[in-house]
């Protein structure tokens, strides 16, 4: 008898959005991970297949974010059966595009549907956060929240979790520039200063509030002024060749700002139109030719749908 199978997709995400370290993120269209799940006749969760990772990812369910997330979910509902997980990686590892989060979220959305949707979509978040703790050493929610819910998301608090979906201004576009080098989130968290001065805390708070207001007022100028990070960027940008050159190159293109996507090395650039986002893409090619580093560039609208079921086979 053919087993029921469900496949879900979860998008790439940009965490932090410059000023919102660990508390802001948004989802990107078209790029992401797919996960297919089916019930098995054991009482084990198994990652049975991974494609697109060049053999780099662990199959062990306490190490792969799909396994960690699904295990946490099944435990919470006291489910005794077994689930097989197949992972199709669309996102590069250690890229800053929320690769570990996309796998976990796709696995959760697929498993939830497989079991008849016992959880509301947002109620899957704690299980995804658990998987980030294993992958990155910190249970940050700014990739998993937008990967699950789509759009811009604010994590107002972690204890208890308080996640607020924000407005997505019409016309806003994103360019992602991924220089070919790997930066692990755990490593780029370890370079951060553990203390912030009063002056920097004030500057950062002003920018976060400005960015949120700008998103609601659909005020591109205000968004642009607010895309400024005095906490993580100074320590992390030195790990990313071409970062300062990119900031300079986009200034006259009409883009709103350039920042580090998550913990890097991918850079994100927000633009008020698709045309400007493509101009940024052309300029980034020129910058990285000079730097001498290969890049992939993606131009994308903001994904407002989040993760979703792609296919269900009875
Ligand atoms: N399914 C998975 N997909 C990606 N990484 C995974 C997965 N499962 C476990 N990992 C582990 O998580 C770590 C991923 O690294 P990292 O968190 O830096 O990548 P990322 O998710 O692309 O980054 P970021 O969170 O900055 O966007 C690696 O050590 C990898 O082995
Ligand atoms: N907020 C996290 C995101 C990692 O993608 C960090 O900056 O470390």
TrEMBL record:
Gene: thrB
Top-level taxonomy: Bacteria, Pseudomonadati, Bacteroidota, Cytophagia, Cytophagales
Domain of life: Bacteria
Any one GO cellular component localisation term in the record: cytoplasm
Pathway as given in its UniProt record: Amino-acid biosynthesis; L-threonine biosynthesis; L-threonine from L-aspartate: step 4/5
Keyword field: Amino-acid biosynthesis, ATP-binding, Cytoplasm, Kinase, Nucleotide-binding, Threonine biosynthesis, Transferase
Stretches assigned to the GHMP kinase N-terminal domain: 69-151
Protein name: Homoserine kinase
Metal-binding keyword on record: no
Subcellular location(s) of the protein: Cytoplasm
Summary of the function given for this chain in its UniProt record: Catalyzes the ATP-dependent phosphorylation of L-homoserine to L-homoserine phosphate.
Catalytic reaction annotation: L-homoserine + ATP = O-phospho-L-homoserine + ADP + H(+)
EC id: 2.7.1.39
Entry's Gene Ontology molecular function annotations: ATP binding; homoserine kinase activity
Coiled-coil parts of chain: none
Principal localisation: cytoplasm
Similarity field: Belongs to the GHMP kinase family. Homoserine kinase subfamily.
Domain GHMP kinase C-terminal: residue ranges: 212-287
InterPro entries registered for this protein in UniProt: GHMP_kinase_C_dom, GHMP_kinase_C_sf, GHMP_kinase_N_dom, GHMP_knse_ATP-bd_CS, Homoserine_kinase, Ribosomal_Su5_D2-typ_SF, Ribsml_uS5_D2-typ_fold_subgr
GO BP annotations, alphabetical order: threonine biosynthetic process
Annotated signal sequence range: none
Residues holding ATP: 92-102
Keyword Isomerase: no
